[in-house]
Amino acid sequence: MDTKIVNLQLLDEKEQDAVYEEAAGVIRKGGLVAFPTETVYGLGANALDEQAAARIYAAKGRPSDNPLIAHISREEQLEEIAAYIPEAARILMKNYWPGPLTMIFRKKDVVPRGTTGGLDTVAVRMPDHPVAKRLIDAAGVPIAAPSANISGKPSPTTAQRTAEDMDGKIEMILDGGPCRIGIESTIVDMTEEVPVILRPGFITFEMLEELLGAVRKDKALDAKEGQNFRPKAPGQKYRHYAPKAPMTLVEGDVENAAAKIRELTEVSVREGKKVGIICTDETISCYEQGIVKSMGSRARLESVAHNLYEILREFDEAGVEVIYSEAFPSDELGFAVMNRLVKAAGHKEIQV
Ligand code: TXA
Ligand code: MG
Q1: In whole angstroms, what separates CA 255 from the centre of its chain?
Q2: Ligand 1 touching residue 157 (CB < 6 A)
Q3: What is the predicted pLDDT for the residue at 225?
Q4: Which ligand is closest to the CA of 192, given by its number?
């Protein structure tokens, strides 16, 4: 299949209108369109069409028990697909929609089980990105959209990375430039008495707690005990966000961690291996060997989140054979960053 890649930034308003019409037509006919959101690029299909959802699973190579998020552009659309909307959800909508927050509700019958991985709940998000919004508006249906990567690879944060994984498999890719946030949305299960965070993201535990009072974290997210629990978001159980090379996360005091990474790097280099180091602006000058990439300043975890997946993909491209990464305190946005790093490392962690 020929994939049409359109850079919207190069088009005038009239040309853009035509592109959105074409893309909306593809969605309505059961086809696939990748598009930018503020978090990562999504691979979109009509959320109410089981066969369209099946094509998403095929293009990604995704296990069919892993449900999709339905993306909406207007609050009324939530009433059409969610059977019950608790008061706490209305509070979160008011504060964080549109935005990087996904909520899980009991689903109505219009949402096929082929979209929800067989579950009777549906995950819903209203993205805060002009391209996503216009596409959903034009399509006139909720758009199911997982991250637009091949299953198991880091999520794409640019149209180029999306094309690497999806070119030839889908009808269209809308290029709206790089994603602002760079990691996927926070997922909160609103079907429980006390809302439960199933996947941490840019909207932090602390932010949710401040608004709602009581919030829990899914036990599977616990740094130490997590591996003993089955995550409630099926997607969280797979090795994920993973670079090709084996990765080790070095945790502890920043200086000691840097010293340990230097030591590990020296051993690997001596073994003739190509080493990638993931560090921060504060530590980059500590390293003399290997391919060294900073995710940004420790004082601005937003930039760390923004650069993380791109750096993992750059290491894939560079053919590094082993990766050592620094770690972060697991509060606020650090909770989401560490969740991705721990998974990228397949839980391979060293404490110093
Ligand atoms: O930021 C994002 O959320 C991006 C952009 C494109 O919007 N999308 C995204 O989708 O990350 P995906 O499919 O890569 O991740 C969705 C996660 C999976 O872990 C899945 O298991 C979980 O959401 N999920 C979806 N529906 C669920 C449900 N009904 N119950 C529990 N978990 C659910
Ligand atoms: Mg994903």
Answers
A1: 30
A2: no
A3: 80
A4: 1
